[in-house]
Write a structure and sequence with these properties.
- This protein is of the alpha/beta class.
- It has three domains: 1-62, OB fold (Dihydrolipoamide Acetyltransferase, E2P), CATH 2.40.50.140; 128-277, Beta Barrel (OB fold (Dihydrolipoamide Acetyltransferase, E2P)), CATH 2.40.50; 293-458, Rossmann fold.
- It is built from ten helices and 22 strands.
- A seven-stranded mixed beta sheet has the order 9-8-7-10-11-12-13, covered by helices on one side.
- α3 runs antiparallel to α4, α8 (370-379) runs parallel beside α9 (397-407) and α9 packs across α10.
- The protein is globular and about 70 Å long.
- Residues 289, 291, 321-323, 326-327, 341-344, 347, 369-370, 390-392, 417 line the site of S-adenosylmethionine.
Length: 461
């Protein structure tokens, strides 16, 4: 066991320390300034991953996590500090990335930083959670999250403080059910064990909407859900969840063939339900991509609407990486035309239904790779006044940045869920755009994740 001093916490939620030879050590659940005895979990070429065995000197910022699983669970990074401190850390991650990776001047960055927006509810904000099943060697059933210390092991969890009251009731219900029922639980094999993983139940997804209604989906192998068991599960959920229980779906997938397609089967009730953000309605299923923190997604929409209102008068908007059109649809009434580009066919399918549901007639979806489709649209002579850019964690990348630059749009509203890729992309985009502002939004309290809205304006020559 070795003792090290934590210098700071970094994006990824871990504390950073160094061995005397300069090698970096990443340690979860520790705070800046703390001296920690560590156990080394993994040695990589340039750094090591460690686990805190004992906090030798505690930070004054350290508090008691509300969740009894915090110290062992991989879900939350920061329940051991106040919410204000979490916001301070996240602002630090953003500033650090822009200065260290983007090489932007720190004073300039700070001048352009708008006040961050915290989540009104730092707990119980998630509208979707997924719990895995496992039966361990002595036959005990586990329902929970993956154990961050032991690959292939599930950490048994009775309660999660991030999801809603109804989802919590459903979790309690499922635990009792899975213990009683005759369904086989999937038991993944570690590399040392022989044979393929087997068993019927993989995991369960809870999705709740603005009324805290709940859709439940069971991820299983390809077998049929036995009829008597199916009825037992439905009766049980109806008894425990009452009217809030809206639908029950089976999602079949062959885990031994990674690429096997999933097939959905409605077991009871509805396959989708409606969720609402401001005056927009969305029909979503258990696996649809939808912002998990509804209150903060509302704030995000309000920022995008304000920016669009301030700029192009009924111009043409590109909703780049549009998902189901969540952001673009919110500004359709302020635009002449909105064009959405998205790679995931199911998101586009759901998006088109959402257009109908909201009576939006000036939004067109294109399915495919974002920068390829955009290049084709530009070649066909399409022009855009404003770009809403909301890429996945990997960011735009050099190629897509180049295509974005070709649009010569007046304004880019870049929404980023990863300050590291944002910083990289900005190094390309600032060749022709000026950064007007940054604003951090906390959609994921207790975790290290953060969202940034960056506004860029074209420097017309
Ligand atoms: C952060 S989400 C944003 C979704 C949407 N703007 C929203 O707020 O719901 C990123 C989206 O990019 C899509 N995506 C990922 N890679 C893509 C690519 N190469 N081309 C187009 N879309 C892509 C994902 O499927 C996902 O829907």
């Amino acid at each position: 066991m070795r003792s090290v001093k934590v210098e700071k916490v970094v994006f990824g939620g871990k504390g950073l320390a160094h061995f005397p030879n300069g090698q970096a050590i990443f340690i979860p659940k520790v705070l800046p300034g703390e001296e920690v005895d560590i156990e080394i979990l993994k040695r990589k070429k340039d750094y090591v991953e460690a686990w805190p065995r004992e906090i030798v000197t505690q930070s004054q910022d350290r508090g008691k996590a509300e969740c009894p699983y915090f110290e062992v669970c991989g879900g939350c990074s920061f329940q051991n500090v106040s919410y204000e401190k979490q916001m301070e850390y996240k602002e630090g991650f953003l500033k650090d990335s822009l200065v260290r990776i983007g090489k932007f001047d720190e004073a300039e960055v700070m001048k352009k930083m708008k006040p961050s927006l915290p989540s009104p509810h730092p707990l119980h904000y998630r509208n979707k959670t997924e719990f895995s099943f496992q039966r361990d060697e002595d036959g005990r059933l586990k329902v929970g999250f993956h154990n961050p210390r032991k690959r292939f092991h599930i950490l048994d969890i009775d309660a999660c403080l991030l999801h809603s009251e109804t989802a919590q009731k459903a979790l309690e219900s499922v635990r009792k059910l899975a213990e009683k029922c005759d369904l086989d639980v999937f038991s993944p094999r570690t590399p040392k064990q022989e044979g393929n993983p087997k068993g019927f139940l993989y995991s369960i997804i809870f999705r709740t909407n603005h009324q805290d209604d709940i859709l439940i989906a069971l991820n299983t192998n390809e077998s049929d859900f036995p009829e008597d068991e199916k009825n037992r599960w439905i009766d049980w959920f109806q008894k425990d969840l009452g009217k809030q229980f809206i639908g029950f779906v089976q999602i079949r997938k062959n885990r031994q063939e990674i690429t096997s397609p999933e097939s959905f089967e409605l077991l009871w009730g509805a396959e989708t339900f409606e969720d609402q953000v401001l005056d927009l309605k969305f029909k979503i299923g258990p696996k649809s991509f939808f912002q998990v923190n509804r209150e903060m997604a509302t704030k995000m929409i309000e920022i995008v609407q304000k920016e669009v209102r301030n700029r192009s008068q009924k111009g043409s908007i590109l909703d780049f990486f549009c998902g189901n059109g969540f952001l673009g649809m919110s500004v359709a009434s302020l635009a002449q035309q909105v064009t959405g580009i998205e790679i995931e066919p199911s998101a586009v399918r759901e998006g088109r239904l959402n257009l109908e549901l909201n009576g939006v007639t000036n939004y067109t979806f294109h399915e495919g790779n974002a920068h390829v489709i955009l290049r084709e649209l530009l070649e066909q002579g399409e022009t855009f006044d404003t770009l809403i850019v909301d890429p996945p964690r990997s960011g735009l990348g050099r190629k897509a940045c180049k295509t974005v630059l070709k649009t010569q749009a007046d304004t880019i509203i870049y929404i980023s869920c990863n300050p590291t890729s944002l910083a990289h992309d900005l190094t390309h985009l600032t060749s022709e755009y000026e950064i007007e502002s940054f604003q951090m939004l906390d959609l994921f309290p207790q975790t290290y994740h953060l969202e940034t809205v960056c506004i860029l304006t074209h420097q017309k020559k």
